[in-house]
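Exam review. A common question shows you a sequence with its structure tokens and asks you to describe the fold in words. Practice with the pair below. Do the first one on your own.
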Amino acid sequence: MAKTLFSDLPEGMITEVLVRLPVKTVLQCKSVCKPWLSIISNPHFIKSQLHHAIVASQNNPTLLTLAKPPPTESELLSLSFAQALVPPYPFQFATLAAELQHQKKRQLIDEALLDVNGQDLSSSPVHFDRVVIPRVFYPHIQIVGSCNGVICLSGMGARVIYLWNPSIRQCKKLDTAPTRQTSSAVDIGFGYDSVSKDYKVLTVVYEQNADNYVPVVQVYSTNANCWREFWGPILKNSEFWGRTNIVVNGILYFASTGRLCSFDLNEEVFGFVPYPSSVKSKKSDVMDFKGSAAMVFESEFGVDVWTLDDVCGELSWTKKFSIAADPDPEIEIRLSNYLGAGQFCGIKMLNSYIPLYKVLYDYEKKETKIYGLGEGKIQAIVKYIGTLVRLDGFEPVDSDIN
């Protein structure tokens, strides 16, 4: 009986196999033969691969560490020269309290390094990946957000913005938004409008007008490849709390002072929802928890996770679960993102403002695991899915983009 080779299978069956492979493997398969290259380059395959990657991430999420590039030779020489100019005086803390805090931080990190069980991630559903941010994005870059495998980065007060897919090593530098000469701070967000199939970047620029600042909204559309600008009077007297944003069901959310700000990526309109009246201070940015916008708020005995849900056509906050306070009142876990499969990522903090180390928190098992100790200089850590998404204007990331 003749053997059947994989290449002899119908194209539809080959496609169904390829689309379920990790994106790194799929990219390697492009070099196998021309028929496979044709299959993988097809827009329908790219769309199908994205769908499968999103579904797979629900049970096996990926945390992507974005590492800073190593210093160049000239940067090392500059650093050495600067250090040579500084006399080697012993470091002294400004206060005894600061010195005691430093000692406790060092003690807690040393204990974590020795905690073998605490670092055992063999049973974790989370996959860890790492990429070095290309030097072309520097200097002064920050991570805005990640959506469908595309990461948005900005710098210089959002005057420089990149969209980057590290899986395929391609990126696009956006045209500069209209300049505001008298503007103040800039808030920025990034997300995907599934209705118009459009990736959008939102910036809110506060322009000085007489005695106050007037919010000016700028929206970049990858479909139109241009910026649209309009006034945002509803944002007046609003102060966004942090730069982290999240997209849930086509709505971009920002944590604002006293209320949650939303921006409908399709309708391009803003809205506000007050925080739950019974809570104390905010303890997280906005997260996507199983298809609902979620935040963590302080409670009497620890923190509570709340979700914003549609109840009979009205938006309402629902308390999902609580996390008990640490026995040490100076220690807390600050959750930053829900990954899926019951896993949150976050940071263990000392006295609310001193980061100790990164953790995974399983809210179902009420179990904490340590990860990433001694990773070196990290720019950011994002929830990520590897995809083949390529936007118009994408170029190899090693290109000299100006």
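Now try the second one, then compare your answer with the model answer below.
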Amino acid sequence: MWSCDQREDNTLEHLLPEIFLNTMSGNVLETALRSVSEYHCDPGYLLYGNYCYHLESEDVKSWQDAEDHCSRQQGHLASIHSQEECHSACFVSAAHMVGQAWVGLNDIKSENQFVYTDGTPVTFTYWAPGEPNNHNGFSEDCVEMLYETGRWNDKSCSELNNYICKKPKAHYPAPSVQPTQYGCPQVGEAKCFKIFVSLKLKTL
């Protein structure tokens, strides 16, 4: 399992959106439209990979109420499965400067058998030192992420907290782009420019 403080070298493909990677092949405008249409999150959500993330910092809820809210948004409390996704979730939380936020990890059904609400397997953990611990003998069956470190802490599910929702990105078909007789795509008020390049040979 990875921990959040481990870093791998990322290639350019992982750091830049598709629109920049494909501008040198095919129709630039068509590529841009296709990229924008495929990489879509609802307002208030941030995109990472194939999922959209939203941190709710204005309406604190118990863990179950937070999960119910995410479910109504066609998502779940966030599951985190890799080093990169951990840093992404940390960024979402830190951007709002909240102290901590619920994620989907819990051991409500079986003590110390942690599962995610979205049904995905637990392949990565980033517990704070000494966690999980059921502090002072209390039943702490739900998990929060601490924004200052990104580490995780078990906590009583009835406590009110910020929370992170996660859901698959939306997909919309790319708009059709038909070239005119002059080779300029007919999209809105797009303007085309024709560039002439001439080479001059200089004799000595």
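Model answer, second protein: The radius of gyration is 23 Å. Strands lie at 46-48, 51-61, 76-77, 100-106, 115-116, 142-146, 152-155, 161-168. Full marks require stating both points clearly.
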